[in-house]
């Protein structure tokens, strides 16, 4: 695109020089029309090039999430790193595809920032005995830690802790509250 613009400008200058070289010192109507058309084409090419560059920059900013955000990526509300809760099905410590994708983003961040450490807190809903829920919360926290470590996070960067049913995210004895309480939370050290 730049090459076309340069050639048009060269042609425009050449036409202007050729026009000046005429012996009668007057530019004919045909020459003037050609020069105007060349100038219009050059202006259109420049505008198209500018629009293309702006579109590429906007696309790059979108692909990078909030490329314009300054500060720690953990604080960027548009980053996947702002999400730090993994939810589980009833009586399960299996992580679904959405949870794996989220953990891969956190693993990338932790691998790039080896000085950062994270505590994985495992939680359960209120059903089951206290001992059972502590064990299930530990399995959930360990499952999350394992995914992080399998994606390049150093063992020393991750700790786990089970709260069982002791710190519910939602109060209530219904499926909606239980679903919010079956979780593992990533808590970054300050």
**Which CATH architecture of the domain at 80-188?**
2-Layer Sandwich
- Report the count of strand segments: 4
> So how many helices?
5
- The CATH first-level class of the domain at 80-188 comes to Alpha Beta
Mean pLDDT value: 86
Give the CATH H-level superfamily of the domain at 80-188: OmpA-like domain
> Which topology of the domain at 80-188 does CATH recognise?
60s Ribosomal Protein L30, Chain: A
State the end-to-end CA separation. Answer: 49 Å
Q: How much of the sequence is in beta strands?
A: 5-15%
Strand and helix order: HHEHEHEHE
Adjacency order of strands in the biggest sheet: 1-4-2-3
Q: Structural class, from helix and strand content?
A: alpha+beta
CA radius of gyration: 31 Å
Instruction: Summarize the amount of helix as a percent range.
Output: 40-55%
Q: Uncertain runs with pLDDT below 50, 5 residues or more?
A: none
Shape: rod-shaped
Quick one: biggest sheet? 4 strands, mixed
Pfam family, one: OmpA
Biased composition (Basic and acidic residues): 35-55
Function: Part of the Tol-Pal system, which plays a role in outer membrane invagination during cell division and is important for maintaining outer membrane integrity.
Subcellular location: Cell outer membrane
How would you describe this protein?
The protein has a domain of 109 residues: OmpA-like domain (60s Ribosomal Protein L30, Chain: A, 2-Layer Sandwich), CATH 3.30.1330.60. It is rod-shaped and about 100 Å long. Helices cover 52% and strands 12% of the residues. The longest helix is centred in the N-terminal third of the chain and has 35 residues. Helix 4 links the parallel strand 2 and strand 3. The model has no long low-confidence stretch (mean pLDDT 86). The protein has 5 helices and 4 strands; from the N terminus they run H-H-E-H-E-H-E-H-E. The protein is of the alpha+beta class and 190 residues long. The two termini are 49 Å apart. It has a 4-stranded mixed beta sheet with strand order 1-4-2-3. One of its GO terms (cellular component) is cell outer membrane. This is Peptidoglycan-associated lipoprotein. It is a lipid-anchor.
């Amino acid at each position: 695109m730049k090459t076309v613009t340069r050639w048009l400008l060269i042609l425009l200058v050449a036409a202007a020089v050729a026009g000046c070289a005429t012996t009668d010192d007057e530019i004919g109507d045909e020459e003037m029309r050609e020069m105007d058309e060349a100038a219009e084409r050059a202006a259109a090419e420049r505008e198209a090039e500018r629009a293309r560059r702006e579109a590429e920059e906007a696309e790059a900013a979108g692909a990078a999430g909030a490329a314009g955000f300054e500060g720690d990526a953990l604080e960027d509300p548009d980053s996947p790193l702002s999400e730090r809760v993994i939810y589980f099905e009833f009586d399960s410590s299996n992580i679904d595809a959405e949870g794996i994708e989220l953990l891969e983003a956190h693993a990338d961040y932790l691998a790039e920032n080896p000085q950062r450490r994270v505590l994985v807190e495992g939680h359960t809903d209120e059903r089951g005995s206290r001992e059972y829920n502590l064990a299930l919360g530990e399995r959930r926290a360990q499952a999350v830690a394992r995914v992080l470590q399998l994606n390049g996070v150093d063992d020393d960067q991750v700790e786990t802790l089970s709260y069982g049913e002791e710190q519910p995210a939602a109060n209530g004895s219904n499926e909606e509250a239980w679903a919010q309480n079956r979780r593992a939370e990533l808590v970054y050290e300050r």
